[in-house]
Design a protein that fits this description.
It holds the Pfam family DUF2161. This protein is an alpha/beta fold and 246 residues long. Helices cover 40% and strands 19% of the residues. It has helices at 7-19, 54-63, 88-98, 132-144, 162-177, 182-189, 194-200, 218-226, 228-239, and strands at residues 22-28, 31-37, 44-48, 70-75, 101-106, 114-119, 206-210, 213-216. Helix 2 links the parallel strand 3 and strand 4 (70-75). The radius of gyration is 21 Å and the shape is elongated.
Length: 246
């Protein structure tokens, strides 16, 4: 059963790592899947493709600049036995030589997908070392997101980021206040960088109507409507600390 989109692989991979105790989020700093485990010092990254190809391999090598725990994940299509990108023993040996992990997801018509690990990462044995700065940025972006609102493997879609979340919270505060100062927006939204977000106006959501006074633009109003469900999840998560909506 061949998948149509890479995003179809994300859910079974997410569930697999969650069962192992990882907190999982997608599309974090361009990584398809990122997992963090309380008992591990390094984040885990999984790059997803429908089939094994050179682009996936190069992505995996690039991700080793963030962590040694890098997996490549592809569909295991039972109808394509013998295809060059289904020669699992050869592909496993290649990944092992490069310090990458390799996973497959097999889909069935009448039962749940099956996730299999063909080899685990050993990135540091290859001589490549992760950049502390890149790792730190990845972890910070991961933790600043309140939930997992993207789908790993997405292309051509607006990605939910920690910055977008903060901007949406500020926009909601401006909408509620009608015409509001950055200081008030900071108080009502709980976003310390509210003033910078309003002044830089990256998404075009805010309009300065007087000194120290802003209103929401039509684009900002539309964004709040588009992300209404996500904002409700944020409110519930903040009202019940420790519970994360995904």
């Amino acid at each position: 059963m061949a998948v149509q989109h890479e995003t179809e692989l994300y859910k079974p991979l997410k569930q697999y790592f969650e069962k192992l105790g990882y907190l999982v989020k997608s599309e974090v700093r361009h990584c398809d899947l990122v997992g963090i485990h309380s008992g591990q010092t390094e984040p885990l990254i999984v790059e997803i493709k429908k089939t094994f190809n050179l682009a996936l391999l190069l992505q995996g090598l690039e991700r080793q600049k963030m962590t040694r725990e890098v997996y490549l994940a592809v569909e295991r299509n039972r109808a394509k036995k013998g295809a060059h990108n289904q020669r699992w023993s050869d592909l496993t040996a290649l990944c092992q030589r490069l310090g990458l992990g390799l996973m497959t997801v097999t889909f069935y018509k009448t039962k749940s997908p099956f996730v299999e690990v063909l080899c685990t990462p050993s990135g540091y044995e290859t001589g490549r070392r992760a950049s502390k700065l890149r790792t730190s940025r990845l972890i910070n972006e991961f933790h600043e997101r309140s939930g997992d609102y993207n789908v790993g493997g997405s292309t051509g879609r607006k990605l939910y980021t920690a910055y977008r979340e903060k901007a949406l919270k500020v926009a909601a505060a401006v909408q509620a206040g009608g015409q509001i100062s950055p200081r008030k927006a900071k108080e009502h939204s709980g976003v310390s960088a509210a003033a910078a977000i309003m002044q830089h106006n990256y998404y075009g959501w805010f309009q300065r109507v007087a000194r120290g006074s802003y209103v929401l633009t039509e684009t900002g109003t539309a964004a709040l409507a588009e992300y209404e469900t996500m904002l409700r999840n944020l409110e519930r998560a903040e009202a019940a600390p420790g519970l994360e909506e995904v």
